[in-house]
Amino acid sequence: MKNINMQATKTPMPTQDAEIRRRNFDEVTLGYTEDDALNESLRCLSCKNTPCVAGCPVNVRIPEFIARIKELDFEGAYKIISESSSLPAVCGRVCPQETQCEARCVRGIKGEPVAIGRLERFVADYHNAHSSASGSKPEPNGHRVAIVGAGPAGLTCAGDLARVGYEVTVFEALHKAGGVLSYGIPEFRLPKRIVDKEVENLEALGVKLMTNVIIGKTLLVDELFDMGFEAVFIGSGAGLPAFMNIPGESLKGVYSANEFLTRSNLMGAFRENSETPIMKGGTVAVVGGGNVAMDAARTAVRLGADKVYIVYRRSEEELPARREEVEHAKEEGIEFMLLTNPTEVLGYNNENDRRDPKNGSVIGMRCQRMALGEPDARGRRRPVPVEGSEFTLDVDTVVMSIGTTPNPLIKSTTADLPTNERGGIIVEEGTGKTGKCGVYAGGDAVTGAATVISAMGAGKLAAAAIDEYLRTK
Ligand code: FAD
Ligand code: SF4
Ligand code: SF4
Question: Domain tally for the chain?
């Protein structure tokens, strides 16, 4: 057996052909075989100073788990990863590795970095396929904790507390747990069986899941304390969509990306008899250039759109989406209309046979060409309109994907819960402790839209802080 593989590029990931996958919702990437994983693991130089570990927000011991793969000890590799990450099958798929662990890999200096994410996914999938153990209930310690929101932050916090004996109840507004992992990220990027399995494992640990409960409406945070919970963790995410505030945004056929993806992922809107119908053909324009925009555009392709545009106001270089997602979107036939900004959505009211920006259906979008000007505060060149460049794009559906913020409901119904100007709950760094006694928070509800791994990391920190608080109270 070779001890080192000096191949400059990553071991390729087997992938569904673009022409086939654009007609189905099955996972696009198929995962490494054992041979692929071994081949890729041998590219790792086992660096003593472990630069890659510093790039991972939860400091997975990367060279150590890769060393176990080299020895074909895949369960040993899983054990090492799961000491730092509670959702390795998810993170191996959706972490932006190119800006995190892989960005620091020394093999990236003269070629491609080690495919850390693909190896992590391989190990987690191997474990899930070969292990039936789902954890046993630990001895109860007599303390009760409430978690608001069943996304990665809430589920991680719940799992860590349940493992040390807390009686944990998770309150979730939707009818299904998982947060964005269930309602946002489509099946073709993250199969829902993986999320469901994680939720089952938590339930086996004794975590109670109460779905269809909106904290701030069905129950208030203060009422949770009255019910006997001694601490509350808020992991309610950042699900409030932003709109451009241009004329015509309330027309039939304009969606936020969250609504569009939720209808498809969670409510099966693509089915013939669906009670939450969604577009099933025609031309779709998705406004925005992030991962969410790519997910919406690629979902529209699979729902049967004849043509899908990404409309983004900066150039390709500034696209915030992961490179891999942009490449996959292009392969699936999505057209990128760059340096372009919408100014109005145009509608048509069939009843009155006239254009009506309030009541009709979408028939087009007025757009303006943009050029890049001086850099803004974040160093990104600011898009400026090009005079006289307006044109009309014929579209039937518009999906706005220009960002989200935390929903103000919990803040507005909870006394003494300080938030910042963007609606994020203010917390103490390293613990997630809020200004309200016994209340902790983490994930997108604190940071605004971020990543799965950062939400998970925040859930872990808060669990440790809640444990400390309740043991010493
Ligand atoms: P969420 O996942 O948003 O979960 C919050 C949960 O709280 C939800 O289930 C919500 O219903 C519930 N909730 C909200 N309010 C209440 C209430 N009042 N009462 C009870 N429950 C409530 N990140 C990546 O790392 N990689 C990616 O590829 C990626 N792709 C993405 C694609 C899409 C379409 C979206 C929308 C996001 C993506 N992200 C990605 C971001 C990532 O998913 C989020 O950063 C992460 O899910 C945040 O986790 P969270 O637990 O803080 O919140
Ligand atoms: Fe990389 Fe994410 Fe795994 Fe950390 S959790 S090692 S960032 S893939
Ligand atoms: Fe392996 Fe790259 Fe980490 Fe070095 S930096 S230990 S080569 S993964």
Answer: 3
